[in-house]
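Researcher: Good morning. I'm working through a list of sequences from a screen, and I'd like to move beyond sequence-only analysis. For each chain I'm collecting a predicted structure so we can compare shapes side by side. This is the next one on the list. No need for commentary yet; just the structure.
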Amino acid sequence: MTNYAKHETDEQADLVRETLSYDPERGILIRVKTFGNRQDRVSKPAGNVRRNKTGGAYRQVSVGKRSHYSHRVCYLLYYGHWPNGQLDHIDHDGLNNKIDNLRVVTQSENLKNAPMRIDNTSGHVGVTWHKGRKKWQAGIIVNRSYHFLGRFDDIDLAVSVRKQAEIEFGYHKNHGNPR
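Model: Good morning. Structure tokens for this chain:
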């Protein structure tokens, strides 16, 4: 069971359906019902932006006393059931909840479509400068295991070897693109 599945019940899904509507082409949730004295929120976009430590941002929405990632709610409202797994934002934009930008993936698949980290110093995923050897080093992680791809005098060769490994190991074509 995933960490979010605890409150992704049929009961919570019913509450979401009566509280929110989804526009799949624009990727936004609209509040159609509120609880308590917050009638000013009806017919307005729902949710708040939350930023994470890696520079990404996701929208979250509260329904009843539960908070949900908006992309999971969008999936529920479009397909009629909670996603069975993680949702990947294909273009790396966690705020783009258009239905054609969301896909259900395993954690391993999700990691194969990760944006470039904000602390990357080479400008290329999986390529680092090895100070001691004064060479560019390439590597890739597959199934939680680091695979050393070699050290190179030329950064372009290191990048090329890394890109070939991404193809070989089934990485998404967007992997490593900036957010």
